[in-house]
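Section 5.1 Outputs to date
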Amino acid sequence: MKRVAVVLLMSLALASPARAHAIHTTHTTVTADAQGYTLTVRAFADDLSASVARFSGRTPPADSSVRVPELVAYATARLTPTTAAGKPLIMQSCGVKRMQDAYVLCFRLVTATRTAPLRLGNQMLSELHADQVNIVQCDVAGSRRTNLFTRGRAATAIVERGVCAAS
């Protein structure tokens, strides 16, 4: 029994600690109401702050803070909503909240009715992490679909004929 305990203790002492890999994701929800579409984006504060600072030509702040106008400019450059024909839709900020280790961003799409076809590209944070995955979940008219965007993935149909498009 002593020998087993000694071997076990030596194994634990010599074992290297497991290396955790950070998860690099954002989560965007697309919803619709009578006025059009709303995009709600949740992103880790440290990653988003670093990307916004880089986009704005500044050093990332240690507290993962962001300047809201810079954040909105970054998000509108990386989220690319368009009509089915490829015409860009204007995103208007409807709020930014810091929630502990994350930011939640809200955008309304100007000129999009809730039944209008919607295409979306999402390259947020992909300039920071090669393994970035941006999850876009559509929840429109009782239909739900999820799309995954990785570095370089082109815009794709999110809403067609008033419901979430098949991914």
